[in-house]
């Protein structure tokens, strides 16, 4: 089966793969209230966040599409990226550290962090910093077959 990948950037970033030939019959809708997970700040960040891992269990779907709310005092800790990744700020105020430079970010800002880039994101202000995060899943590492 051939796969054709397309990317669309609108009010948020989204990438999807469309299978040519057979129509898919496993499309569905998820609501954030059903998948919300309270977590500490990722990458050893501070505070509390709420993650909304949309379509994490979708078979054959190669895109991570996540909403995350960084509650007051929360952060995504500084880390070296091992993939290209997009953050899109929906609401709130934040401070982005990207490759040693710091700047304020807010609603409407889209951030591209490349493989090898170092970054962190800090919630600032009194309201949650709410973002979409989009990146391509890494292929599963095959389990080595033992030799007799």
What does this structure look like?
This is Cupin domain-containing protein. GO terms for molecular function: metal ion binding. Keywords: Metal-binding, Signal. It holds the Pfam family Cupin_2. The chain is an all-beta fold. It is built from one helix and twelve strands. The protein has a domain of 103 residues: Jelly Rolls. It has a six-stranded antiparallel sheet. The protein has a four-stranded antiparallel sheet with strand order 6-11-8-9, with no helix packed on it. A two-stranded antiparallel sheet has the order 1-2.
Stretches with pLDDT under 50, minimum 5 residues: 1-16
How large is the count of helical segments? 1
Q: What is the terminal-to-terminal distance?
A: 34 Å
CATH level 3 topology of the domain at 34-136? Jelly Rolls
Spatial strand order of the main sheet: 3-4-5-12-7-10
The percent range for strand residues is over 45%
InterPro entries: Cupin_2, GPI/OXD, RmlC-like_jellyroll, RmlC_Cupin_sf
GO molecular function, one term: metal ion binding
Domain Cupin type-2: 70-135
Protein name: Cupin domain-containing protein
Task: Output the keywords.
Jelly Rolls, 6-stranded antiparallel beta sheet, 51% strand, 148 residues, 1 helix, 4-stranded antiparallel beta sheet, Cupin domain-containing protein, mainly beta, disordered N terminus, 12 strands, GPI/OXD
């Amino acid at each position: 089966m051939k796969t054709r990948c397309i990317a669309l950037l609108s009010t948020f970033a989204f990438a999807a793969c469309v299978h040519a030939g057979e129509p898919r019959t496993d499309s569905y809708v998820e609501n954030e209230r059903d998948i919300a997970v309270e977590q500490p700040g990722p990458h050893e960040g501070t505070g509390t966040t709420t993650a909304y891992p949309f379509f994490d269990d979708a078979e054959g779907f190669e895109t991570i599409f996540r909403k995350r709310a960084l509650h007051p005092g929360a952060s995504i800790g500084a880390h070296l990226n091992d993939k290209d990744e997009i953050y899109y700020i929906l609401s709130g105020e934040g401070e982005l550290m990207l490759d040693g430079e710091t700047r304020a970010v807010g609603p409407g800002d889209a951030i591209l962090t490349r493989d090898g880039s170092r970054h962190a994101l800090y919630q600032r202000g009194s309201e949650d910093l709410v973002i979409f995060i989009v990146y391509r899943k890494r292929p599963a590492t095959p389990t080595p077959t033992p030799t007799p």
